[in-house]
């Protein structure tokens, strides 16, 4: 499948822009690194472990609604620059791509915290090109330069419309382990959080 270079370089303004160059008959892939792993909320044909290079999973976005509040924001995951990230690639049937991508756009693009990109996702010795939502470092919700104590305190205390931030972080780490993905840094963080909560 061919995508024009603009789909790789320019920031798409809509789902229609995102899908420029798609022939409407090929299935498309989506890369999941956080809650999409354990709560995708869409139909998929195939699920593979995948690695994206050049970015890493990080609790680096303030959440003032779903996992926190305006007075006590929580933190959610983004893909920040540097390193690599092991996650899950989902193959979406061509017939379901328009509706699924509209849902993903509404879910991930409301606050301008992410930049959608078509990137290479390495799976079992072969690469697929998948939609990846990268951190937008220019957004106002980017949580930069947090100390470990600040991060732990926010995750422990914040509660939002979708529940406790602590539950979100623990569920993500558990979903990674159940998928066979070892994120040592996140595992160490969850151990600290659980010990403090217990």
Short descriptors:
198 residues; alpha+beta; Hypothetical upf0131 protein ytfp; five-stranded mixed beta sheet; two-stranded antiparallel ribbon; globular; disordered N terminus
Write the SSE topology.
Layout: H1 5-9, H2 15-18, E1 28-32, H3 35-38, E2 46-63, E3 74-92, H4 97-108, E4 114-123, E5 126-135, H5 148-157, E6 159-160, E7 163-164, H6 165-178, H7 184-197
Parallel strand pairs: 1-5
Antiparallel strand pairs: 1-3, 2-3, 4-5, 6-7
InterPro entries: ChaC, GGCT-like, GGCT-like_sf
Keywords: Lyase, Transferase
Enzyme class: lyase
What features would you describe in this structure?
The protein is built from seven helices and seven strands. By secondary structure, the protein is of the alpha+beta class. It has a single domain (15-196), classed as Gamma-glutamyl cyclotransferase-like (Hypothetical upf0131 protein ytfp). A five-stranded mixed β-sheet has the order 2-3-1-5-4. The protein has a two-stranded antiparallel ribbon with strand order 6-7. Strand 6 and strand 7 form a beta hairpin. 34% of the residues are buried.
Q: Could you say which structural class the secondary elements and strand pairing correspond to?
A: alpha+beta
Strand tally, please? 7
The CATH class is identified as: Alpha Beta
Radius of gyration, in Å, reads 17 Å
What proportion strand?
A: 25-35%
How much is the average pLDDT? 91
CATH architecture assignment: Roll
Q: How far is it from the N-terminal to the C-terminal residue, by CA?
A: 51 Å
**Number of distinct helices:** 7
Strand order in space, largest sheet:
2-3-1-5-4
As a percent range, the share of helical residues equals 25-40%
CATH homologous superfamily designation? Gamma-glutamyl cyclotransferase-like
How many discrete domains? Answer: 1
Contiguous uncertain segments of 5+ residues: 1-9
- What is the CATH topology assignment? Hypothetical upf0131 protein ytfp
Run of helices and strands: HHEHEEHEEHEEHH
Shape: globular
**How can the largest sheet be summarized?**
5 strands, mixed
């Amino acid at each position: 499948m061919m995508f024009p270079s603009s789909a790789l370089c320019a920031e798409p303004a809509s789902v229609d822009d995102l899908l420029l160059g798609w022939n409407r008959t090929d299935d498309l892939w989506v890369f999941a690194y956080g809650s999409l792993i354990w709560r995708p909320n869409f139909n998929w044909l195939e699920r593979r472990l995948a690695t994206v290079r050049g970015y890493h999973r990080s609790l680096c976005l303030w959440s003032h609604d779903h996992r926190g509040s305006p007075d006590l924001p929580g933190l959610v995951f983004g893909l920040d620059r540097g390193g690599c990230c092991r996650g899950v690639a989902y193959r979406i049937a061509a017939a379901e791509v328009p509706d699924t991508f509209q849902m993903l756009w509404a879910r991930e693009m409301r606050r301008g915290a992410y930049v959608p990109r078509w990137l290479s996702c390495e799976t079992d010795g072969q690469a697929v090109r998948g939609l990846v939502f990268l951190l937008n470092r220019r957004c106002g919700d980017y949580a930069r330069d947090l100390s470990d104590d600040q991060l732990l305190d926010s995750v422990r205390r914040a509660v939002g419309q979708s529940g406790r931030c602590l539950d979100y972080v623990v569920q993500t780490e558990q979903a990674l382990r159940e998928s066979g993905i070892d994120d040592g840094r996140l595992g160490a963080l969850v151990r600290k959080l659980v010990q403090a909560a217990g």
